[in-house]
From TrEMBL:
InterPro entries xrefs: Cell_Envelope_Assoc, DUF218, Rossmann-like_a/b/a_fold
Coiled coil: none
GO terms classed as biological process: Gram-negative-bacterium-type cell wall biogenesis; peptidoglycan metabolic process
Membrane-spanning segments: 12-33, 42-65
Boundaries of every DUF218 domain copy: 82-249
Keyword vocabulary terms for this entry: Membrane, Transmembrane, Transmembrane helix
The keyword Cell division is assigned to this record: no
Alphabetized Gene3D superfamilies for the sequence: HUPs
Gene Ontology CC: plasma membrane
Protein name per UniProt: DUF218 domain-containing protein
Organism: Neoroseomonas lacus
């Protein structure tokens, strides 16, 4: 069942992602008009309206802001940390395999922050969790790429636990818990993108990580007009799609019983 849900989530997301869906609707409308059905004009208008809305309003920011503002880093930071967990999603294993050097995507701060925290807390255990999160992939896992990158950055290999089987956030939480077996009272930091933090905190808590501490990175929103309209259109579309995917993921995880609430409590 888990494999089926994973496959369905990847297959259905391709036509469902907003940019793709708007284009599909537009082409259906064009075909209907070409066949003489005037009602197709409404589909064309809906398609164009979606892109126009994204141009003139910061709807992408409105979707992401509640997610990114949900959890903040603790202030002051913990004086003692037992472990640091870095979630996958920041590396490009197919490009790495093709070019032979570690390749990162827009969530690269997950990887750099992991190194920063490892140096700030030299006695903490460092865990990277990420297997094959993409539906079409080569032979490298995200953990393979992380190992290449962190080793090149001077992180000793025996310092890091690499979990290389997880395909999604739920498996990140469950598999890492099984590997690490955290003890009551231990302080563990969870490093992931700020917009991904609510779903991550919810699923990690449900998997047994009751006292895990959020450490968000990779912010994409602000509270000023400059931040709302600064990004170019392709980036704004990507932010919108990411925001919708996160909200859908929060709802889906709750319906599947993987979390205890759609939006987890801050404390």
């Amino acid at each position: 069942m888990t494999d089926l849900l994973f496959a369905l989530s990847k297959i259905l997301w391709f036509p469902a992602r907003p940019g793709h869906f708007a284009i599909i609707i537009g082409f259906i409308g064009l075909f209907m008009v070409w066949r003489g059905r005037r009602s197709g004009r409404w589909l064309i208008l809906a398609s164009l309206g979606f892109f126009f809305l994204l141009v003139v309003t910061p709807v992408n920011q409105w979707l992401l802001l509640p997610l990114e503002d949900r959890f903040a880093r603790p202030s002051p930071p913990p004086a003692h940390v037992d472990g640091i967990i870095v979630l996958g999603g920041a590396v490009e294993q197919n490009i790495t395999e093709a070019r032979g050097i570690p390749s990162l995507n827009g969530a690269a701060e997950r990887m750099t922050e992991g190194v920063i925290l490892a140096r700030r807390y030299p006695d903490a255990r460092l865990v990277f969790t990420g297997g094959q999160g993409s539906f079409v992939h080569g032979g490298l896992t995200e953990a393979d790429v992380a190992r290449q990158l962190w080793t090149a950055m001077g992180v000793p290999q025996d310092r890091v636990i690499y979990e290389d089987q997880a395909r999604n956030t739920h498996e990140n939480a469950v598999f890492t818990y099984r590997m690490v077996q955290p003890k009551p009272g231990e302080v563990w930091l969870l490093v992931t993108s700020a917009s991904h933090m609510p779903r991550s905190m919810a699923v990690f808590r449900a998997a047994g990580w009751r006292d895990i501490v959020p450490w968000p990175v990779n912010y994409r929103t602000g509270h000023s007009w400059a931040a709302w309209y600064d990004a170019p259109f392709p980036e704004r579309l990507g932010q919108l799609e990411w925001g919708i995917r996160e909200w859908m993921g929060l709802i889906a995880y709750r319906l599947m019983g993987r979390t205890e609430s759609v939006l987890p409590a801050r404390e």
